[in-house]
Amino acid sequence: MYPRISDMLRAWFGIDFPMPIYTYGFMLAVAILTASWLAGRELRRLQKIGKLGKLTQKVRDKNGRISQVTLQPSDLMSNITVIAAIAGVIGSKVFYILESPGGDVVAKLFSSGGLTFYGGLIFGTASVLYYVHKKGITGVSLPVFMDALAPTVILAYGIGRIGCHLSGDGDWGIAANLALKPDFLPMWLWADTYPGNIAGEVIPAPGVYPTPLWEFLACFAIYWILVALRNHPFKPGWIFSLYLLLNGLERFFIEKVRVNARFDFLMFQTTQAELIASLLIIAGIAGLAITTRRMAAPEAPSSPTPA
After folding, report:
1. Total tally of structural domains belonging to the chain
2. Average pLDDT value for residue range 270-292
3. 53: domain range?
4. How many CB atoms lie within 10 A of CB 203?
5. What is the pLDDT of residue 57?
6. Is residue 305 in a domain?
7. Distances (CA, A) of 256 to 34, 261, 268
8. Is the bond leading into 206 cis (omega within 30 degrees of zero)?
9. What single DSSP character describes residue 140?
10. What's this model's pTM, rounded to 2 decimal places?
11. Which of 32, 138, 139, 197 is 20 to 30 A distant from 188 in Cα terms?
12. Does 221 reside within a domain?
């Protein structure tokens, strides 16, 4: 494993160039920048086909006067990216602390690891929606905006999971059962001992399920499904609802083979991620039921009445 970028450079290229950059943090930055770029492209596409109006934002001058300024999709995404990144990291830390109670809370808060995706998703989404409302941004409806972001969010999550795998941060699966391994799969995609992992754990052979890799592949597939269906004929919000459903299903089932803290909820033993994933599945199904309605075709202009 390669907890730091310098470890990767040394192993792959024989370059000894100390870089105090953690691999997971680097991949997280790649994920955020990739999502921002792709979301900006999608907003520009929506603008060209008429699903996105003229973007404007309220600004206040030094005299307190409020005016509206025109925004480009790239301007909007640059601001949202910074807000989502900061709020997402804070939310990830908060949910990690809630998921793993006990120990030194301050140390957990400022550690290089311990980032929970759903915490980042909830905090990041809430912060972006508040920003859009507070700044009086017009020209894009909330359902259209969420549809534009949905594919990039799932792809960013998958890229982040590559960081988990390369650094070996503990987000791996339970002990791998080699008897169940399909013959066509390479061993590295079925079991891994994560040598030199940043968590400092020694994993006996044959290893554990490399669930971060499985999640990356699942997220990559979901991304392409959402992109392929983005020109659907249904109401705005349909793509985002499908994202909620597929994201929830992916995470719910991966939790069955992941090492994670479990707690009692009603009559069940569950994890924090399983519980949130279940809520996402329910929300996704409800959203699809509401938005799976064909958009009304625009009325043809009436012929002028002869004088």
Report:
1. 1
2. 93
3. 23-216
4. 18
5. 79
6. no
7. 29, 12, 13
8. yes
9. S
10. 0.85
11. 32
12. no
